[in-house]
Write a structure and sequence with these properties.
Elements lengths: L3 E6 L18 E6 L3 H7 L10 H9 L3 H11 L2 H6 L3 H29 L6 H5 L2 H9 L7 E2 L2 H14 L17 H25 L11 H24 L11 H11 L6 H23 L10 H16 L1 H4 L20 H33 L5 H17 L6 E2 L1 H9 L6 H17 L8 H10 L2 H4 L4 H8 L1 H17 L1 H21 L4 E6 L5 E3 L6 E2 L4 E5 L9 H12 L3 H21 L2 E4 L2 E4 L49 E5 L8 H16 L3 E5 L3 H9 L12 E2 L2 H11 L5 H12 L30
Parallel strand pairs: 8-11, 11-12, 12-13
Antiparallel strand pairs: 1-2, 3-4, 5-6, 5-7, 5-8, 9-10
Helix pairs in contact: 5-8, 5-17, 5-18, 5-19, 7-16, 7-18, 8-9, 8-15, 9-15, 9-16, 10-11, 10-19, 10-22, 10-23, 12-13, 12-19, 21-22, 22-23
């Protein structure tokens, strides 16, 4: 402890197969005392920090002054912040171009996505207007385009078709009396959206925006891929011109496909040809937009162009009458009067609405985060929840359905030069013009065109399936999450699929923490670095020393796994060894008492030549777990030597064990008890235990929980692994000449090539000490 530690480190790689220019490695030299945690604490005074109490936090939370009031107002109305820095000359023209482009796309997608929600098309225009206005004032993202999102629209449609099916009577709900089927569906969609907004607003006010962190990128990718499959199947009836009732629930996609293929011969050829033509042209032009986006001033709005062309052709040739094509039909002029949500629908749909609230926020927040990083500004997850909650509540009052953000529409708003949500406001004005003045121009638009536009925009989500091979090669648990989430969402429905995926994801986290990859470390020759002994050739392992590392927190679920792996690492079960030693002591005492065993200059000598009577004393069995007691014996027993009277005790070749706690972030009470029991078992069989690199928070917790006693002492804690190793080498010097050389190498840590190659490095893998059945009896 009083000695000084000198380290000179450098590195050279293994001899390469191809001759490379040798790079001179940098070196550093450190000279300092050898520190245990106690010695370091004695020498270096810590700063005493005053931690705030709960009362102080509560008082601070409810304290209000002018500055806090101003900050609160700015956080609730983020548009004030960016309006103050708005550069009119540089930004306004870009926002105009972006707003017009986004507005045209929003009109088309609003009409298309309302079909996914099983609603008349014009209600999608309401979703592209009211939520955008509210988000302008409350949202923190400057680039996302708020409105209908296909996955959310499909989830709303599943609830709508469950309560108001295409075939059969609707669910008995007060308020449905005297309403048409479409009006009932609008009431369901609006009530669902209102409840979704309440949930999002409540989560925002309660500051639980962090909940989105539990939806990993892998889970969201699998979920949205499954949603894309559902959307594709749901649009086939429009592309083929078939009458297929909307279905919901587990295996709904299978039953839908069955109904489509049963009547496949009734396909409307005009719808099919129109859809294929639209999809081919839109796909090709979108590819051109992607390839030449750096050269194009704005992306070619091919969906809008093809929609206008399709409308003109449909009107000119009267597709609805001549070819029996299903068209959008009458679009009412203006907005409908607001309506109150139906409380009974709340009770019928609450379980299905909660996943919608989470998915809607998660997708929008993910997209907003991408653009905030790209354009260097900050978004607030909790304020985003408030913004979307308020947008959906106000929108539902005016009969719009669930709003989030569509990836393609947001890409249009950002790529066409949008700088702020003024572009979103202008897009809402374009939608309003269509709703109030020129909506009638879209009445001849075939629904198959809308279905084709929806399908071709699914490319990005469907292509996520390419992630599976990558995940399988890189991280198989993540791949399992992706596959299970995707398959469950396809077969069971999006709401149950999301729940299953989240459950699998949490299980993988639990399993990774419960069954971590523990390892036995060894010193890399000539350095103060310690790595997994299975991974390196040039290593040094002092005889009788084991270094065990657990790379995870230790808690109630993995403490038994930790103890089992620790037994594997040391090569023996310390509790079993302790019991055998105490049994051996009982027998030695009994033989001494009978005179069959006597103390001589050579040690204990068996005087009886006859057979030793085998007997088992079952009394006081709990005493076998106590430390071995030699106080009434004339000599202390050397357990690794040959014992008299054929007494057999497992040999223990380990005298020191180092536990590397550098990756242990916390311990709970159950783990503290299990850890203490494991340490006592090792100490009682004369194995010195050292714990290194322990977090200061854990060390403080150990002191506060009365972890230390006369057996488990704070002096076993060392600052670093190398400090503990030097302490052990000083306490247990090795006799072999070759090993002395290696001890000098590890102590001074200077580079001497492969000086330790002649030393037995204990390359055997996880040796186990087995005691035969004859050894268990005396």
């Amino acid at each position: 402890m009083e000695g000084r530690r000198k380290v000179a480190r450098s590195g050279t790689g293994a001899a390469p197969l191809i001759k490379k220019k040798r790079v001179k490695m940098k070196q550093y030299v450190v000279t300092r005392p050898l520190y245990s945690e106690d010695a370091f604490a004695d020498e270096h005074e810590k700063i005493h920090r005053h931690h705030k109490t709960v009362r102080h936090h509560v008082k601070q939370y409810f304290t209000c002054d002018l500055k806090r009031a101003k900050n609160a107002a700015l956080s609730l109305l983020p548009f004030v912040g960016w309006m103050r820095i708005y550069q009119l000359k540089e930004w306004f023209l870009s926002d105009i171009v972006s707003g017009v482009s986004t507005g045209l796309v929003a009109v088309l997608q609003g009409l298309a996505y309302s079909l996914l929600a099983s609603l008349p098309p014009w209600y999608g225009l309401f979703t592209a207007f009211f939520p955008v206005i509210i988000y302008f004032f409350l949202g923190t993202s400057r680039h996302i385009s708020v409105g209908a999102f296909p996955v959310l629209s499909l989830m709303v449609g599943a609830v709508v078709t469950r309560l108001v099916p295409d075939e059969g009577p609707p669910v008995n709900i007060t308020g449905f009396e005297g309403l048409t089927s479409d009006e009932q569906r609008v009431m369901v969609a609006a009530s669902v959206t209102f409840l979704m907004g309440i949930m999002q607003l409540a989560m925002g006010l309660l500051q639980v925006g962090f909940i989105v962190m539990y939806l990993s990128d892998t889970l969201v990718s699998g979920f949205t891929t499954a949603a894309a499959v559902h959307i594709l199947v749901s649009q086939l009836k429009f592309v083929l011109g078939l009458v297929v009732p909307g279905l919901s629930g587990p295996l709904a996609i299978v039953y839908t496909l069955e109904k489509i293929f049963v009547q496949i011969e009734k396909t409307n050829v005009c719808d099919l040809v129109t859809s294929i033509l639209i999809m081919v042209v839109v796909f090709i032009v979108k590819e051109i937009n992607d390839r030449y986006k750096a050269k194009l001033p704005v992306p070619i709005p091919i969906e809008v162009i093809m929609t206008v062309i399709a409308c003109g052709i449909s009107y000119a040739f009267n597709f609805r009458v001549n070819y029996k094509v299903d068209v959008v039909g009458r679009i009412p002029v203006g907005y409908e009067s607001p309506m109150a949500p139906n409380m009974q629908i709340f009770g019928q749909t609450a379980v299905e609405v909660f996943p919608m609230a989470i998915v809607g926020f998660a997708v929008a927040f993910s997209v907003a985060k991408v653009y905030s990083v790209k354009h260097d500004y900050i978004i607030d997850g909790n304020q985003e929840l408030i913004a979307f909650g308020a947008s959906n509540i106000i929108g539902a009052a005016f009969k719009s359905f669930a709003a989030s953000t569509a990836l393609s529409r947001s890409a249009v708003q950002e790529s066409t030069g949008g700088k702020t949500q003024i572009a979103g406001l202008l897009s809402a004005l374009i939608v309003m013009v269509v709703t109030l003045a020129i909506g009638f121009l879209l009445e001849p638009l075939p629904k198959s065109v809308l279905g084709a536009v929806v399908i071709v925009n699914l490319k990005g989500m469907l292509m996520q399936i390419r992630e599976v091979p990558y995940l399988w090669r890189r991280d198989r648990p993540d791949c399992v999450v992706w596959l299970v989430t995707c398959l469950a969402s396809i077969l069971l429905g999006l709401d149950l699929g999301l729940a299953v995926g989240l459950g699998i994801e949490l299980l993988t986290v639990v399993f990774r923490a419960q069954f971590p990859r523990c390892s036995v470390l060894a010193n890399i020759t000539g350095t103060d670095i310690y790595k997994d002994r299975k991974d390196y050739m040039s290593i040094y392992e002092p005889e009788g020393v084991k270094i065990f590392r657990i790379p995870s927190p230790i808690f109630f679920a993995n403490i038994d796994f930790f103890r089992g792996k620790l037994v594997e690492a040391v090569g023996f079960n310390p509790l079993r060894v302790l019991r055998k030693r105490n049994k051996a002591l009982r027998k030695i005492r009994k033989l001494l008492k009978k005179g069959e065993l006597q103390m001589t200059s050579k040690g204990l000598l068996l005087t009886s030549s006859g057979p030793i009577e085998e007997s088992e004393d079952e009394s006081n069995m709990e005493d076998l777990d106590q430390p071995t007691d030699f106080k009434d014996l004339p000599v202390q027993v050397n357990w690794n030597s040959e014992l008299p009277a054929n007494i057999q005790v497992p040999r223990v070749d380990v005298h020191s064990l180092i536990l590397d706690f550098s990756a242990v972030s916390f311990l709970d009470v159950s783990a503290l008890k299990g850890l203490k029991a494991a340490l006592k078992e090792l100490i009682r069989v004369e194995v010195e235990v050292y714990i290194v690199a322990c977090d200061a928070y854990i060390l403080k917790k150990l002191h506060s929980c009365m972890f230390f006693d006369n057996e488990v002492k704070s002096s076993m804690f060392f600052l670093t692994l190398h400090d503990a190793m030097l302490h052990i080498l000083e306490k247990h010097p090795v006799n072999s000449e070759n090993t002395k050389v290696c001890e000098k190498v590890i102590t001074t840590a200077t580079i001497h090539g492969n000086q330790c190659n002649g030393v037995s490095s204990l390359r055997s893998r996880d040796k186990f000490v087995h005691v035969s059945e004859t050894e268990t009896k005396f």
